[in-house]
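We modelled the chain as a single entity of 276 amino acids. Its sequence is:
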Amino acid sequence: MDHDDNMTFTISQVAKMLGVVPATIRNWEKNGLITAKRSSSNYRVFTLDDIEILKKIKEYSVEKRMGARAIKLLLPNNGDSDIEQYVEQQKEVYYSKKLISKKWREIRKQQGYTLEEVSKAVDISTAHLSKLENGGNVSLDILNKLAHFYRENPLYFMEPTAQENHLVRKGCGDPIKLSSAPGMEMFSLIAMREHMMYPVLCIVEPGAGSLAPHTHNGEELICLISGVLEYRLNDDPPYILHPGDTFYHRGSDLHCWRNISSKPAKLLWVHSAVAR
């Protein structure tokens, strides 16, 4: 250990500070969560800043049981890190071209709104809304706000299936081309152009999920196939879902959820666009 402004600690010393074994820190490094510096003798050494990062890694990995992929999104790039950083990243990542921009204009005119009325309601500029209606990218945050304003599910604004079919075989669901939720894959389980339900198969990496509390139109039902979910609803204590559990709520309930198991979770998510 050095005794100057560049104080460093050995891996054994750091492991003792954190309450883990050195092999755990080596595993974190192997997974790309941190890169240890090396001494002149080629031993791993850690600065005080490194130790702060390692404390966060322990919190996310051990206490919150997040996977490496989700942890990487939470680790600091400029000296600060928090769950809100991940939420903001979700808001800023854009949906793919599978969204049909013309539907924004169609539904606005069908419901009798002007550009100015809608832009004011969802708190974006009229120019921004006009750009979206003409093929511009839309963020997760704005998509949810617009869908909620028009009382539609966000999936309503995606391309319809190429060919209608009453049967969707295992592994043949149309991928929902969204890049808005890191650590999640989504597949449509319905192959009809006109429908009131939106059944989706979700595969969720550890620590990932729908992390930003939100509301929307309609009703939701989740059936957990594998993994463990932490579901937060309004001001209720957290609900912990295990395989075989189902969870229902109205879209107007403030909700968010995440996979708290150490392995990918699989769940059936069904949204009904019309709430009673």
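As a brief sanity check on the tokenised model: Residues 48-63 form the longest helix (16 residues). Residues 38 and 239 are 44 Å apart (CA to CA).
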